[in-house]
Design a protein that fits this description.
Blueprint (H helix, E strand, L loop, with lengths): L9 H14 L9 E5 L5 E3 L15 E3 L5 E2 L8 H10 L5 E5 L2 H8 L12 H5 L2 E4 L7 H12 L4 E4 L3 E6 L2 H22 L9 H10 L14 H19 L9 E5 L5 E3 L15 E4 L2 E2 L9 H10 L5 E5 L2 H7 L11 H7 L3 E3 L11 H4 L5 E4 L3 E6 L2 H21 L10 H12 L1
Parallel strand pairs: 6-7, 14-15
Antiparallel strand pairs: 1-2, 1-5, 2-3, 3-4, 5-8, 7-8, 9-10, 9-13, 10-11, 11-12, 13-16, 15-16
Helix pairs in contact: 2-5, 3-6, 6-10, 10-13, 11-13
């Protein structure tokens, strides 16, 4: 989706995002609905009882300001609460309602996920409201939801129902939706292996304060063919990471070494789903490409490249099963299957704050491991070729998932020392 979302028709915005939600397993064929209110006050909304997996722009309904319905289907049965939200909050221009499994888990035990589980979610999601149960599709439901939005919330847990979120545009609403579901998943998965630990507001504020400062701009930038090729590789891996649930739109940094210690890196402030080659930022001799703001983790990537000449690509992201270990301070033993140990050996963790610029970061950048977890923040994967680094990320996440799921069956029996010795002699000698 183009970053200039105002130039995309609401029908196309809605079909893009509902397809994304469906393919990521965050709604069902019949569940969920999305709407956008345009500058004329007309509301564009998904239709009722039409397959969310194959929705087309021509299926989207327009409910005019005067109540006239334009389209070949009926508007969503939940249209009343969409309309009520727009009437209650003129600053809200888009609404997403869905039944993603993790957030439904919270709604049926009548709890609100604590977004302090990871560093950036509090800022993205804001405080979370709670709407008591009312009959789906009823005016009563619209009233209780609108009442919550009137309190200033942009994200609401709906009792025994799901969630509803608003945004200044559809990208904003989706980032909030995706981040909140990620928090819920991380808490749930973490609870299966330990006790999730949460950041304090002051820790989050400290992260925001230290992550400031921008490199000086280059006076001139060249774009030779090998540089352009790496930009395309970065965009493809970011897109793939988002599609496979290994990255969310509001968080994730990918970089590739270009020449010597110069490199290319993803920007800050750009939704990862929408990343284009023009967004990628060139870093050369400690300067950034003019007119672009690189990731706030650029300094970590620069130090890794400076001190580790064999590292040529880095992925810094949040994936739910790896972060389950990151929020519980649990050790991820990757002696699960031979491939996991061969690729990763050991995955250690560092405390939250070790990634702050002002702190000693030797644990992260000196002799950096293939995979390292930063508690309540992210996982850093390093490698030679970018596709190889992405493979390591997949293997690490699959290993974490196996351990989390296996924990309900019994105690893990890892590959023993003799078996590890055989693997080391055959594959690493």
């Amino acid at each position: 989706m183009s970053k200039n979302i105002r130039l995309i028709h609401p029908r196309d915005q809605i079909t893009t995002i509902i397809s994304r939600i469906y393919k990521r397993g965050m709604t069902t064929t019949s569940g969920g609905n999305i709407s956008i209110i345009d500058d004329e006050g007309d509301i564009w909304v998904t239709p009722s009882a039409i397959d969310k997996g194959s929705l087309r722009a021509s299926d989207i309904i327009c409910v005019k300001k005067d109540g006239t319905i334009i389209g070949k289907h009926k508007p969503s049965s939940e249209f009343p609460f969409h309309k009520a939200i727009y009437e209650a909050r003129p600053d809200i221009k888009s609404v997403i309602h869905a039944h993603p499994p993790a957030l439904v888990s919270f709604s049926i035990v009548r709890q609100i996920p604590n977004t302090n589980i990871i560093s950036q979610a509090k800022h993205i999601c804001g405080p979370i409201g709670y709407a008591n149960y009312r009959l789906p599709g009823s005016d009563d439901l619209g009233e209780v939801i609108a009442d919550e939005f009137k309190k200033g919330y942009k994200a609401i847990i709906m009792e025994n129902h799901g969630t509803v979120l608003g945004g200044s545009n559809l990208t904003d609403a989706y980032e909030r939706f995706e981040a909140l579901e990620f928090c819920a998943r991380t808490i749930l998965y973490g609870s299966q292996i330990g006790k999730p630990a949460y950041l304090t507001d002051s820790q989050i504020a400290e992260f925001e304060d230290q992550a400031t400062g921008v490199l000086p701009e280059m006076e001139e930038t060249s774009f030779p063919s090998d540089e352009v090729e790496k930009r395309l590789q970065i965009c493809k891996i970011v897109q793939r990471s988002c599609e496979q649930g290994l990255m969310i739109g509001s968080y994730g940094t990918v970089s590739m070494r270009w020449k010597n210690n110069d490199f290319l890196i993803t920007p800050t402030g750009i939704n990862r789903w929408d990343l284009d080659i023009d967004d990628v930022v060139q870093i050369k001799n400690g300067h950034r490409e003019a007119g672009k703001i690189p990731s706030r983790a650029t300094w970590i990537h620069q130090e890794i490249y400076n001190r580790n000449p064999k590292v040529n690509s880095i992925i810094m992201t949040q994936s739910p099963y790896l972060m389950a270990f990151g929020v519980t301070k649990s050790y991820l033993n990757v002696r699960t299957i031979p491939e996991s140990w061969i690729f990763l050996q050991d995955i250690n963790s560092v405390k939250y704050g070790a990634h702050f610029r002002k702190n000693n970061n030797s644990e992260i950048v000196d002799n950096c491991a293939t995979a390292l977890i930063i508690e309540n923040d992210s996982v850093i994967i390093t490698g030679d070729k970018l596709l190889q680094t992405f493979d390591y990320l997949e293997v690490a996440e699959f290993s974490a998932k196996s351990v989390v799921l296996g924990n309900s069956l019994g105690e893990m029996v890892p590959i023993n020392d003799d078996q590890v010795k055989e693997l080391r002699e055959k594959f690493l000698s």
